[in-house]
Design brief:
mainly alpha; 92% helix; rod-shaped; single chain
Length: 37
């Protein structure tokens, strides 16, 4: 049980990190596109 919970927490943290990184990259690209106009 403990191992499963740890794996789930790790997966959740990794997922949030990936999502945050993707959003940051998207905002950077969008901001760059707007500034380059």
């Amino acid at each position: 049980m403990a191992v499963g919970a740890t794996d789930a927490a790790t997966a959740l943290a990794a997922g949030l990190t990936i999502i945050s990184a993707a959003l940051a990259a998207g905002l950077t690209i969008i901001s760059g596109a707007i500034c380059n106009r």
